[in-house]
Amino acid sequence: MIKESINNKLAIFSEENELEVETALLQLRPKLREVWQNKYDQALEEENQAKLHAILNDLKRVIEFQQEGLQDKLTEDDFIATFSETKELDHDFLVDILADLKAAYFNNELTEIDSGMAGSVYFRKVPNKPDSQYCIKIINNPSTNENYKKYNSIKKEFELQSQLADINIDGVRLPTPYLVIENKKLHLIVMEKLEADPLYVFTNEQMVGKPHIKKTLPKDFDAETFFTALTAYMKEWHRQGFHHRDFHLGNIMLDRQTLMPLVIDTGRTKKIQPSEDPYNETVVNQFSTTKNYFPKDLEMLEKAKQTLKTISQSKNKE
């Protein structure tokens, strides 16, 4: 039931609509349910009628994605992968990862750790091999997923991540990509599992669609060292023509061991020519012209720096 404190302007979002949302939430996988419950609760708190209806419509689409499912439709022939050519990776290791992924997928043994409209991220620890663990990003219904179609394909993401793999500034780097699968039914990328936390968990900022888990910054965390290294790393990206374009607190990670930065997600990354503007795009097709605007990497980095420095300074005063 909508709380009594919500005013009459929400009356159009009826009890029947509420029941639809509650029923849809119960049909979601646990991690995905947590994400959408958080979105729904926030819309209720904001008394935002338009957002409530949008959430209901989006939930219906998510349920359709989930009910269509791929598990019964896929065969082992759909797991033909392109392996990373990173020289440090042993081919046999990649073959073993792919074999384990197939078995885990069909036995429903993947652990979901994050989810959104485009896809879900899973974690896998290989049985009897404690040092073998990896992450998998799987796109929901790639042929019809409008959120996915807006940005890089999974194969393009893999290519960019592979091209950027050699950039390492004082330990600042991307996770190593292992393999990619892109066919009519399955789009996924497998990569190194980082032992790290996204910066937003150390702040009071709420990432859209994600439950907020508040952690305390490690006592030895040095914001100046952290962001000096991260700035140098991102400037090297730019020198080589790469721009992240989604550089928010959820895509900057804190390595739990070294307390240095790590960067994730090349889903919106672009390599440009010197004359191009990476943050303003015009997309033309036979029906329309669309302008896309992306946040500037160094501006987002500076914003993150100020947020974390404030938290770190407050912590040191305690």
Q: What features would you describe in this structure?
A:
The chain is an alpha+beta fold and 318 residues long. The chain has helices at 15-27, 30-46, 49-68, 91-106, 146-149, 154-163, 223-239, 297-317, and strands spanning 82-83, 111-115, 119-125, 133-139, 177-182, 187-192, 196-198, 242-243, 252-255, 261-263, 270-271, 280-284, 289-293. The protein has a six-stranded antiparallel sheet, sandwiched between helices. A three-stranded antiparallel sheet has the order 7-9-10. β9 (252-255) and β10 (261-263) form a beta hairpin. The longest helix has 21 residues, at 297-317. The relative contact order is 0.10.
Short description, anyone?
By secondary structure, this protein is of the alpha+beta class. The chain has 8 helices and 13 strands. 27% of the residues are buried.
